């Protein structure tokens, strides 16, 4: 049987084991974070996939068979009276459905006659506390699950850990020690004043604090706890997990209040989705939810595998960092002829979406990363940001990876495929600015969210319209008829009507977005805003003189020349004239009115964070600026409001620390 396993698979497995063990030792034992916990989870997930497919490759020393890490030699080693376990991970709704089916099969339950309890998974350091007759006698880290580290004196400095319980019982409990986000900010401010290295994340400080040889450091850092499980109890165990949490609270432990009783998988998934949105509102880090069969008797029946409980699972939130491999590198031609290298990846799920491509930006970035075809890389995606390759996991190289060489010609550039890189510029460009690749990219840009935002008019539809010669110029989009669309393949009456309705809805546009849509060289979103705010009408923009343009803050001489040259072209001026026959440009308040406060949001500065549901971030920015406000990318004391959408992130937390008002999307819409 072993001979049927590909040699490459065996080699990959051994590399993964070595690499995971290296990073795992650094993370759990040395409290270092050379790789994110999400990226490490991704490597472990790949390892488990191989071992699941080829179970004969599973060995006792595999990272998949371990729990935690070895104790530090600086602390006294103590054996756990009750073995410590870690939960298996679920990453998708399918994973959690499979878990439910496994539980039912093991219990031989035909209909759901049991329940689940969902608890938040706190990202901190696990601690095991032992009490005799209600008095704290031992505190230990998890270690390798069988032997931990005696950290009793340090844990006694944690204010939320009771030294004496409310009842005289013998009990061993498990929980998480964590550092709050506000406390994390406070500690880093202290580090800055001392001109010492700042802490990487709250989890590292929590782990490092409990492992300090000087207990006074713990007191200074103010860690906190949540206790969530009973490992041993000298009295009758509570009937359910929910009752167990209530008992812990009664005894005097701090218990996270956000646990929830669930009857079925549908309710579990709803809880999981709810906390994906709400997690950033809490002061502690949450990286998923823990699901347990609620009934204690059924937990005991289900028992454990060699390394994890069968009755529970950790349902992780979508990772923002994962690992994958580069299968190929191709090129994308932009609307201005800029050539962008694109990595084709082994598809991987990151931040809730399946990703198979990531930009490599330019030739210099490829050289900086030393990225090669075949490499294992760390991929990052935050919110709605484009996936980005952060680093290469060089430990997994086999020698078969192919270094990437920049070509001298690219066919898509048209003509002889010539490309050029101007001195001082990071990007290569097509010499021929009239190639079909550039032409269609300009159409993609024109219909995109940054410009006219024509819903449903994506690259595939644009390609179809260009291929069948239905459009030649931007204004042709607004002249499309129903019969034009029905004559195209795969277009039915409903889809044709939907597209025409979307085109009709896009006929009203802000001045800044109109300028963006034209693909004027050197003019992006911010510059378009500067031009719109200064001139307030397209007539004044196209008639502007170079001397006036170069004096505008944010424009300058290079952009000014590009704008003058573009509008000096007869074809471009004619295009603007034809577009104005179809579209209406929304009025913008003159600068004088905005500065005197006569406009609704005059003098107000907004910061947007997270994903907005009822409008895109670009639409929100445009609306703020149209009403006289301004938009910033960073939060400061000068910020008037932070608008927090779904998964808002650190900007929302910083706003609270600076006492800057945070608006929900609904509150923001009411303000508008």
Which CATH first-tier class of the largest domain would you pick?
Alpha Beta
Strand content: 15-25%
Domain module count: 5
Distance between the termini: 67 Å
* Residues in helix, %: 25-40%
Indicate the mean pLDDT: 86
Total helical elements: 25
Structural class: alpha+beta
Number of strands: 26
Largest sheet: 7 strands, antiparallel
Rg from C-alpha positions?
30 Å
Structure, explained:
With 672 residues, the protein is α+β, with helices and mostly antiparallel strands. The chain folds into 5 domains: 2-65, Helix Hairpins (Orthogonal Bundle); 88-316, D-amino Acid Aminotransferase, Chain A, domain 1 (2-Layer Sandwich); 321-429, OB fold (Dihydrolipoamide Acetyltransferase, E2P); 436-585, Orthogonal Bundle (DNA polymerase, domain 1); 598-671, Rossmann fold (3-Layer(aba) Sandwich). It has 25 helices and 26 strands. Strands 12, 13, 14, 16, 17, 19 and 20 form a 7-stranded antiparallel beta sheet that branches. A hairpin with a 7-residue loop joins strand 16 and strand 17 (388-392). The longest helix has 22 residues, at 7-28. The N and C termini lie far apart (67 Å).
List the helices and strands and how they pair.
Elements (H helix, E strand, L loop, with lengths): L6 H22 L8 H17 L23 E3 L9 E2 L2 H15 L8 E7 L2 E8 L2 E7 L5 E3 L2 H4 L15 E8 L2 H13 L8 H9 L4 H7 L2 E10 L7 H11 L8 E3 L2 H14 L7 E8 L2 H7 L9 E5 L4 E13 L4 E13 L2 E7 L3 H7 L2 E2 L2 E5 L7 E5 L9 E2 L15 E2 L7 E3 L5 H12 L11 H9 L14 H5 L6 H13 L2 E2 L1 H7 L7 H11 L2 H5 L3 H4 L6 H13 L1 H11 L3 E2 L5 H6 L8 E5 L7 H10 L3 E3 L8 E4 L5 H8 L4 E3 H7 L1
Parallel strand pairs: 2-11, 21-22, 23-24, 23-25, 25-26
Antiparallel strand pairs: 1-6, 3-9, 3-10, 4-5, 4-7, 7-8, 10-11, 12-13, 12-16, 13-14, 13-20, 15-18, 16-17, 19-20
């Amino acid at each position: 049987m072993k001979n049927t396993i590909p040699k490459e698979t065996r080699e990959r497995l051994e590399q993964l084991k070595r690499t995971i063990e290296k990073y795992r030792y650094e993370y759990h034992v040395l409290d270092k974070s050379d790789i994110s916990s999400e990226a490490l989870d991704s490597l472990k997930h790949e390892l488990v996939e191989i071992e699941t497919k080829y179970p004969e490759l599973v060995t006792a020393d595999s990272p998949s068979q371990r729990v935690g890490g070895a104790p530090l030699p600086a602390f006294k080693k103590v054996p756990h009276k009750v073995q410590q376990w870690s939960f298996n991970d679920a990453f998708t709704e399918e994973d959690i459905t499979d878990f439910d089916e496994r539980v039912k099969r093991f219990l031989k339950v035909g209909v759901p006659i049991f329940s689940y309890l969902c608890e938040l998974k706190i990202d901190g350091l696990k601690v095991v506390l032992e009490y005799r007759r209600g008095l704290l006698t031992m505190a230990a880290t998890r270690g390798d699950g069988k032997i931990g580290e005696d950290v009793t004196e340090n844990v006694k400095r944690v204010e939320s850990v009771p030294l004496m319980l409310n009842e005289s019982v013998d009990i061993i409990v498990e929980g998480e020690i964590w550092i709050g986000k506000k406390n994390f900010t406070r500690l880093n401010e202290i580090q800055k004043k001392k001109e010492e290295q700042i802490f990487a994340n709250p989890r590292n400080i929590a782990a490092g604090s409990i492992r300090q040889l000087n207990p006074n450091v713990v007191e200074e850092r103010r860690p906190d706890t949540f206790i969530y499980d009973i490992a041993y109890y000298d009295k009758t165990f509570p009937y359910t997990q929910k009752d167990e949490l209530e008992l812990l609270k009664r005894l005097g432990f701090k218990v996270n209040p956000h646990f929830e009783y669930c009857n079925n998988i549908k309710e579990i998934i709803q809880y999981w989705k709810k906390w994906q949105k709400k997690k950033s509102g809490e002061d502690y880090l949450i990286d998923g939810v823990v699901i347990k069969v609620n009934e204690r008797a059924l937990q005991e029946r289900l028992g454990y595998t060699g390394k994890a409980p069968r009755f529970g699972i950790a349902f992780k939130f979508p990772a923002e960092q994962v690992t994958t491999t580069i299968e190929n590198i191709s090129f994308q031609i932009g609307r201005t002829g800029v050539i962008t290298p694109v990595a084709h990846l082994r598809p991987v799920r990151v931040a809730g979406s399946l990703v198979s491509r990531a930009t490599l930006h330019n030739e210099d970035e490829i050289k900086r990363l030393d990225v090669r075809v075949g490499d294992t890389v760390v991929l990052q995606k935050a919110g709605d940001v484009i996936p980005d390759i952060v680093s290469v996991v060089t430990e997994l190289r086999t020698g078969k990876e192919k270094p990437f060489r920049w070509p001298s010609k690219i066919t898509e550039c048209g003509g002889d495929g010539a490309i050029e890189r101007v001195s001082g510029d990071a990007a290569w460009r097509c010499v021929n600015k009239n190639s079909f690749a550039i032409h269609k990219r300009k159409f993609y840009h024109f219909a995109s969210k940054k410009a006219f935002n024509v819903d449903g008019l994506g690259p595939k539809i644009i390609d179809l319209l260009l291929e069948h010669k239905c459009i030649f110029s931007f204004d042709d989009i607004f002249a499309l008829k129903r019969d034009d669309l029905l004559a195209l393949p795969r277009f039915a009456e409903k889809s044709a009507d939907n597209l025409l309705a979307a085109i009709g809805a896009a006929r009203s546009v802000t001045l800044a977005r109109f300028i963006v849509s034209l693909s004027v060289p050197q003019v992006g979103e911010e510059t378009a805003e500067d031009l719109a705010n200064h001139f307030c009408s397209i007539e004044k923009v196209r008639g502007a003189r170079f001397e006036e343009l170069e004096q505008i803050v944010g424009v300058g001489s290079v952009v000014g020349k590009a704008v003058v040259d573009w509008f000096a072209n007869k074809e471009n001026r004619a295009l603007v004239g034809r577009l104005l026959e179809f579209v209406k440009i929304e009025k913008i308040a003159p600068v004088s009115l905005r500065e005197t406060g006569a406009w609704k949001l005059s003098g107000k500065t907004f910061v947007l964070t997270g994903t907005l549901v009822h409008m895109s971030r670009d639409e929100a920015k445009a609306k703020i600026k149209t009403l006289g406000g301004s938009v910033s990318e960073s939060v400061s004391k000068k910020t008037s409001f932070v608008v927090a959408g779904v998964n808002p992130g650190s900007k929302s937390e910083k706003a609270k620390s600076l006492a800057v008002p945070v608006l929900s999307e609904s509150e923001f819409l009411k303000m508008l």
